[in-house]
Amino acid sequence: MIAVLHFATLVVTTMFAVGAAAGLNWMLLRGAFWVMRPATAGRVARRTELVRGTVRLARAYSGMR
After folding, report:
1. What is the pLDDT of residues 18-64, one digit of tens each?
2. What gap in Å lies between CA 4 and CA 8, rounded to an integer?
3. How far is CA 10 from CA 15, 20, 26, 46, in A?
4. Burial letters for 38-51: b for 16+ Cβ neighbours within 10 Å, e otherwise?
5. What three-state secondary structure class fits 43?
6. Rounded to the nearest 5 degrees, what angle is found at the Cα of 19, between the Cα atoms of 16 and 24?
């Protein structure tokens, strides 16, 4: 009877440890994404005039060939 009680205690303790580890892992993962977010989320889009000008220039020279 005592062996069954010890085994049940081990199972319950293991399940608690698995839940705590999963919760901690989830919390740290969300924290990592939160820390990485300001690096890309706050940026203003760059002006694309150079890219559009390059496309126009490429089209102009491709017609000359």
Report:
1. 999 999 999 999 999 888 876 666 666 666 566 667 777 777 788 66
2. 6
3. 9, 15, 24, 58
4. eeeeeeeeeeeeee
5. coil
6. 125
């009680």: which residue's tokens?
A: 5
d(CA 10, CA 51): 64
Measure the N-to-C terminal CA separation of the chain; round to a whole number of Å.
92
Largest CA distance in the chain: 93
Q: Mapping DSSP to helix (H, G, I), strand (E, B) and coil, where does residue 45 land?
A: coil
